[in-house]
Specification:
Shape of chain B: globular
Distance between the termini of chain B: 26 Å
Structural class of chain A: alpha/beta
Strand content of chain A: 15-25%
Strand content of chain B: under 5%
Oligomer: heterodimer
Radius of gyration of chain A: 20 Å
Number of strands of chain B: 0
Helix content of chain A: 25-40%
Largest sheet of chain B: none
Radius of gyration of chain B: 12 Å
Number of strands of chain A: 14
Structural class of chain B: mainly alpha
Shape of chain A: globular
Largest interface: A-B, 12 and 12 residues
Low-confidence stretches of chain B: none
Mean pLDDT of chain A: 97
Order of helices and strands of chain A: EHEEHHEHHHEHEHEHEHEHEHHEEEE
């Protein structure tokens, strides 16, 4: 079977505009959560906080012609993809163009564009829409933009499974490379969901925390939304070695499952099934895993259910490994979640530092693992898994290990 | 039984598809078999019916009783009248 490695990583979120800044903030335990800038206070019922990208000017990343085509969710995907491709040093010249795929996870799609258009239509009763509205907001836009900008002519598409979209995208890309359909893939997730409409809808579901995100902690009150993108270059071990590329880690396996149960409430059985499948796919025994980057949303239900699922899969080893959620730092970036969280898992393997679970107040009896509360820890991490569990009962897990 | 309580119990009975007389002030929504999104929908139906906003603090879906819910509704209604 073809082995797959990651040779490029890019990221943008509330913690910074590139992967090194994001990783540095994670090791320092910095939080990007704060009051929402571009929504007027009083328009939201509950808290009005999110992990927004700040000090961001699209003009410093794109020329005017490109910018006209982009909703923020495509901007973020392109910024992260450009960084990953640059770091990887991979070329899509000649036949390589058709032998490369682009797979991007997203949950909400072009929400900012949609919000602006509907505000114009229903709020201001303006009849005239911008002609580029559709190409900006269409859910496949980020995959199209990455393919166009980089001249990648192989399979390109978007994967939607809400909060598990990124990890489902990794799974699709990995399968295509393993099957021999392509030799490389630009893959990850993107989301730009901090709009009034989206936030009001999340509020109505009563899962947003009014104070902050404190996964696995006593007193946790819900999730905090975030935004951004994480993008990676995957290629075969053979091609990476042949061109002398710097290997960040091996993408060892992926696992996917569906709860086929409640539309919103999580299931430990479904989550455990996805983790087990990822381990099997990676040829990794549970005892090999040193670090789990948890889904860890900070809702009462997710964190206790995920803890039970980890006990199911890892048995006694659950007490040996460490589990952290980085969502108190970059927020819950929905379709970009798994891709941003892979920055943490890769960083842990490369630098031997596990980013902490911030805002931890104290133990909850239903969450009884080592969550590395509040302060990063030096741990030698050889292998890690990254969990994503979506509303709708769709689960996807990525397993990585130190590169050869 | 107050009108508010009566109307609230009607909404709960309809959403949960249960007989009205099974609902007691000391029942929790969980006792009545209303969990997860169904409970959120009950709260939404109540908000729409009375045209009020029930803060998350007043809607403990795990342990809060229907009686406490009625009290929270009455508080919001009183606040609305005084505004």
């Amino acid at each position: 079977m073809r082995r797959i490695v990651i040779t490029g990583m890019g990221a943008i979120c509330a913690l910074g505009h590139d992967a090194p800044s994001v990783w540095k903030a994670m090791t320092e335990g910095r939080s990007g959560i704060g009051p929402i800038h571009h929504i007027q206070p009083g328009q939201l019922r509950n808290g009005g906080i999110a992990a927004e990208i700040t000090d961001y000017d699209p003009a410093s990343f794109f020329d005017e012609a490109r910018r006209a085509l982009l909703d923020p969710f495509s901007e973020y995907a392109l910024i992260a993809a450009n960084e990953a491709i640059r770091q990887s040093g991979i070329s899509f010249a000649g036949e390589a163009a058709a032998r490369t795929a682009v797979v991007i996870g997203t949950g909400a799609g072009g929400e900012n564009t949609r919000d602006e258009m509907y505000q114009r239509l229903y709020g201001e009763h303006q009849g005239r829409f911008h002609p580029l509205g559709i190409v900006r907001m269409m859910t496949n836009a980020p995959a199209s933009q990455v393919s166009i900008v980089h001249g990648i002519t192989g399979p390109a598409f978007v994967v939607a499974s809400a909060c598990a979209s990124s990890n489902h995208a990794f799974a699709q890309a990995a399968m295509m490379i393993r099957s021999g359909m392509v030799d490389a893939a630009v893959v990850g997730g993107t989301e730009a969901c901090i709009t009034l409409g989206t936030l009001r809808a999340w509020e109505a579901m009563r899962v947003l925390a009014p104070d902050t995100c404190r996964p696995f902690s006593a007193g946790r009150r819900g999730l905090v939304l975030g935004e951004g993108a994480g993008m990676y270059v995957l290629e075969t071990l053979e091609s990476a070695q042949a061109r002398g590329a710097n290997i960040l880690c091996e993408l060892a396996g992926t696992g996917m499952s569906s709860d086929a149960g409640d539309i919103a409430a999580p299931s430990d059985i479904g989550a455990a099934a996805a983790m087990n499948m990822a381990l099997r796919d990676a040829g990794m025994s549970p005892d090999e895993v040193d670090y789990i980057n948890a889904h860890g949303t900070g809702t009462v239900a997710n964190d206790s259910t995920e803890t039970r699922a980890i006990h199911r899969v890892f048995g006694a080893h659950a007490r040996e490994l460490v589990v952290t959620s980085t969502k108190p730092m970059h927020g819950h970036a929905l379709g970009a979640g798994g891709a941003l969280e892979l920055v943490a898992a890769i960083g842990a393997i490369r630098d031997g530092i596990v980013p902490p679970t911030l805002n931890y107040l104290g133990p909850d009896p239903a969450c009884d693992l080592d969550y590395v509360p509040n302060v990063a820890r030096e741990i030698n991490v050889h292998a890690a898994i990254s969990n994503s569990f979506a509303f709708g009962g769709l689960n996807a897990v990525v397993a990585i290990r130190r590169g050869p | 039984m107050s009108t508010v309580q009566q109307e609230t119990f009607d909404i709960i009975a309809k959403q949960a598809k249960i007989e009205l007389d099974t609902i007691k002030p000391e029942s929790t929504l969980k006792d009545l078999g209303i969990a997860s999104l169904d409970a959120i929908e009950v709260i939404f139906d109540i908000e729409e019916h009375f045209n009020i906003n029930l803060p998350n603090e007043d809607t403990d879906l795990e342990n809060g009783t229907v009686g406490q819910l009625v009290e929270a509704i009455e508080r919001q209604l009183a606040q609305k009248t005084s505004e």
